[in-house]
Design brief:
10 strands, 42% helix, binds ligand AGV, binds calcium ion, hydrolase
């Protein structure tokens, strides 16, 4: 009896799954622009975005010179696209630099000064072509302007997946204004830390910021001052999804798939972190961000959260809940505060948010169930 019931449940589950596929196959693919910075997880994210062409149309890629040297980051991206048959996705290198560069130690690993992203770039699986074959996809226009060009050319607003600093996005918003901003349906950004600790350790900084935000705090400020719809995937969520040896082993049984082999190899470069720095291993930061776009049900989102960003001083790059500003400052006496004793607004808000942007509403991914995320990535990359 029990077996029959389980079979029935399995049948219904399989039916729902296939209906899900049919529904998505009939819908238009989601149009996405990918703005990344060449980190290990940025490349796994690229694989994930490419793995479902029926669901995702990648319009173009812009790359910042942040977590990896730009030439390498661009070449590796071009090689992955070419190898997997995506010969019509343009790739542009940004010329922008942030106020707080990533440590050279990351861009150039201490091991014989080989950058992390070089360990991806050398993989034989993505080196079957002649170098000149990559050229047609390389865009001459600087990435920050190409991003605007791409947006302005869209008939309808599109989704932006941003897994590095916000410099390119900020450039578009400040230089191209509403014409470009109105073409952004939503930005999903891996960045920020709200209730979680930051991951920046740098002289003169108080450690409250996440690195993508800290790299270019002014850019974060520009995005916060805009009204473009923003979904944050902050450290609060990504802390749940470390890259572990167990996860990488699970690609083994599906190693007849190039996507899986590549993702497994790329993530294998950072599995030692869970032993070497258990307090802060390598996380699937960016890959979770893309997963929240492709499979929204995975990610617990709070739609309206009032936050602000700090653009200068010891906390620069900090993203914070507006509620915390009141508590931190402790200066919201009724005569200074907002009407109705809400403790915020008017003179009070101007006083407590010094060094920060005015508060604005964002959506926040607070939580994800790690196993559901891992299972989704494995399933998606089994192609
Ligand atoms: O803060 C997370 C962001 C993600 O976009 N990056 C790495 C991911 O691609 C910066 C980062 C934080 N800590 C790092 C980082 C580390 N220890 N090594 C390299 N990059
Ligand atoms: Ca990144």
């Amino acid at each position: 009896m029990a077996t029959v019931r389980y079979r029935a449940i399995a049948f219904v589950a399989a039916l729902m799954f296939s209906m899900d596929w049919i529904a998505r196959a009939e819908a238009e693919p989601l149009k996405i622009i990918f703005d990344h910075d060449g980190g290990i997880d940025d490349f796994v994210t690229l694989l994930l975005l490419l793995s479902r062409p029926a669901d995702v149309k990648l319009l173009g890629i812009t790359i910042l010179d942040a977590d990896c040297k730009i030439d390498l980051a661009v070449n590796t991206t071009l090689k992955i696209l070419y190898t997997l048959g995506f010969r019509d996705v343009p790739v542009a290198a940004s010329s922008l630099q942030g106020a707080n560069p990533f440590p050279e130690l990351w861009r150039w690993s201490p091991l014989r000064r080989v950058p992390y992203c070089r360990t991806v770039d050398v993989q034989p699986l993505i080196n079957g072509m002649r170098p000149e074959e990559l050229e047609p996809q390389r865009v001459k226009t600087p990435g920050e302007d190409f991003l605007a060009e791409l947006l302005l050319a869209q008939p309808e607003p599109v989704t932006l997946v941003s897994t590095g600093p916000l410099s390119n996005v900020a450039h578009v918003l400040t230089r191209y204004g509403e014409a470009a901003a109105s073409k952004i349906k939503k930005i999903y950004w891996m960045g920020g830390a709200l209730r979680a600790h930051g991951n920046v350790v740098a002289p003169g900084h108080d450690g409250t910021a996440e690195w993508n935000a800290y790299w270019d705090p002014e850019a974060v400020g520009a995005v916060w001052r805009s009204r473009v719809p923003l979904v944050l995937v902050p450290l609060d969520a990504t802390n749940a999804v470390p890259v572990t040896p167990d996860l990488v082993y699970r690609f083994g049984p599906q190693s007849d798939s190039r996507y899986s082999v590549l993702a497994g190899i790329i993530w294998s470069k950072v599995i030692s972190w869970v032993y070497e720095r258990p307090h802060e291993p390598y996380y699937a930061w960016d890959t979770l961000t893309a997963a929240c776009v492709l499979r929204p049900g995975l990610c617990e989102v709070e739609e309206t959260v009032e936050t602000y960003a700090v653009t200068e001083g010891r906390s620069q790059g900090r993203t914070a809940l507006a509620d915390d500003a009141d508590e931190d400052a402790g200066t919201c006496r009724p005569e200074e505060g907002a009407e109705g004793g809400s403790g915020r607004g008017g003179a009070c808000s101007a006083a407590v948010l010094r060094g920060g942007t005015p508060p604005r509403n964002v959506s926040v991914v607070w939580r994800v169930e790690a196993e559901a995320f891992y299972a989704f990535v494995l399933e998606a990359l089994r192609v």
